[in-house]
Amino acid sequence: MGSIETILKKVLGVGIIGCGEVCQTVHLPTLGHLSDYFQVTYLCDVSSDALRHCKKKVAGQEPETTRDVAKLCASPSVDVVFITNSNEYHAAHAIIALQHNKHVLLEKPASITIRDADAIIAAESKSHGKVFVGYMRRYAAAFVDAIEEIGGVEKILYARVRDIIGPNSIFVDQSGTFPKKFSDFAPADTEDITNRNTELLTQALEVECGVEQTDETKRFWRILGGLGSHDLSAMREALGMPTSVKGVSYNFPFWNVLFQYPGFAVSYESGMDQVPRFDAHIEIYSAKKTVRVQYDTPYVKGLPTTLHICENVDGAYKESMIRRTYEDAYTLEIMELYKMIVEGKQIKTTAADAKKDLEIFGMIMKAGFPVLDTSKIKSNGDAVQSGRG
After folding, report:
1. Is it the case that residue 48 has pLDDT exceeding 60?
2. How far apart are alpha carbons 89 and 171 in whole angstroms?
3. In a domain, 72, yes or no
4. Is residue 291 pLDDT above 50, yes or no?
5. How far, in Å, CA of 353 to CA of 251, rounded?
6. Closest of 107, 116, 113 to residue 137, by C-alpha
7. In a domain, 242, yes or no
8. Least buried of 113, 149, 280, 376, by fewest C-beta within 10 Å?
9. Which among 290, 268, 276 has a CA at the least distance from the CA of 224?
10. Alpha-carbon distance 38 to 94, whole Å?
11. What is the pLDDT of residues 116-136, one digit of tens each?
12. Per the domain annotation, does 300 fall within a domain?
């Protein structure tokens, strides 16, 4: 007879929608390592080749596969749905999962528009399932410790959020997961994602932000929803919401934003180049202490996130580097998901929390780009369509 811990432990069935790079590089390996807690039971993708490839990568039992999102979400073998496909489908597929009373791990961005964020929140309020948005940086042990350090400083004078990285392919190729890309998409699927992208960007930029839709604004909105959402979500938890945006410089592939907070400013600097390094951190300055959380690429498992503290101790300079654990942020995040589902633990990365990112994106766009003639804006309040796999 097993121990009480073994008897009480529930292994959650996981259905994954989207078998692309993040699924192959991050979620399948992490869930495989956490086999005492999770078992992948179902996979869904519009690519049959991706399904065949990922099916072989699942640890434990062989999962079922489908191209039908609703079929996966309706399965009794699925307790939680991981949504890791294209951003255009995040909201639609989260709502289908919630309608089937499933819990959801929703990769960021949770949605591309405030309209769809509200639709997710409304669906969650009617469901037995809960939404957990995948901001893994906020679950890193060093970040959690930094929040306590920041809360103890007398007054924040300045802060910097920095995220300058080399080509993602370099890190992915060195991850040891050997992900593959597939292109066996039906014409109808390609047309559907194109139409969705067009509608969502029109809703986000013209209707909700009131800025002109250009190649530049569309690209920046996608960047904010991708790399930027990690940075700005962490900034929100550490410092709260900014009161305004003082300036924006967008010179792709680099950009800068100056946020105003009560009594201090925050400089957000980010960009992508061809240098194979990953420099992402958030740093807070006070009169006698500086606190920095330093991140490395999440695609190479086990690289530590570290906490750096520089301070004045009785007139002497003291510098500390703290690495509480080698557990990576994705592992820590998914274990928090488990506690939410099994133990009922309250989590911080909710759908309502994720909506605040979109509010900050809107502040940035309005401060940095030409405002659209409001007489040309057409409101679109239609609900999110169910979408394809």
Report:
1. yes
2. 26
3. no
4. yes
5. 29
6. 107
7. yes
8. 376
9. 268
10. 19
11. 999 999 999 999 999 999 999
12. yes
